[in-house]
Amino acid sequence: MQGIKIILLFIALMLTGSNMIYAHEDTALNSALEKMTQSVVTNNPQEYIRHTSPRLIIVMGGEENALKLFKESLSTLRDVHNITIDTVINYNKLDVMKLENISFKFIPQIMVTTVTDTEESILIVTNVLAIKENDSPEWKFIDTNFVGDEEIDIMIPEFKDKVKIPRLAEEPLILPKKEVQKVLQNMLNFLDESLKQKPAAIDYP
Q1: 30 burial class (0-12, 13-18, 19+ CB within 10 angstroms)?
Q2: Residues 48, 72: contact at Cβ < 8 Å?
Q3: From CA 161, how far away is CA 173, in angstroms rounded?
Q4: Which residues contact 63 (CB under 8 A, 6 or more apart)?
Q5: What is the pLDDT of residues 174-194, one digit of tens each?
Q6: What pLDDT digit, counting tens, does each position of 129-141 carry?
Q7: Phi, psi angle pair for 200, to nearest 5°
Q8: Strands (DSSP E) along the chain, which ranges?
Q9: Contact, 21 vs 200, CB < 8 A?
Q10: Which of 106, 116, 112 is nearest to 125 (CA)?
């Protein structure tokens, strides 16, 4: 299927283009990521905001406005597009990197959704930036696909001309529900192979 090829190509470019390597286990990051992910699946905007980077919240106009926007986006999915989020898969196998006082890593994310009263599912590939600052024990997250390059430059000026933000594939993948598990496994296998073939340490100028 052409849609699968496009998404796999996007993920491969995201991994190799950003010079990622295998990750060591980070318990604090894993725990925070799991809580953030569950907040999306269970429609808990307050919990989601708690794990969102303050840098993004500022760009969104403050915590109150960020909470409002998150509620509206979930409501639009559910009530307008009749889409329910079933599960979110985080490909959390990349290494944590450091630039100045910022520790960070990119996490490819596959969101599995169901279209109400149909036999169709939609796979949405996105990219989450995990970020920890100034030796803080807390990891926060930014979904970079909903933030433009200009906003990124304002939000994380340390990254400008040093870290390229991977972008989302243009189209989600629509497929029959019965094919979801097979397609997901193929995507995850492809990710594993991409990492094995082109591991590289990041090299800042």
Answers
A1: middle
A2: no
A3: 32
A4: 49, 57
A5: 889 999 999 888 888 877 877
A6: 999 998 788 999 9
A7: -160, 145
A8: 83-90, 97-99, 102-115, 120-133, 140-143, 173-176
A9: yes
A10: 112
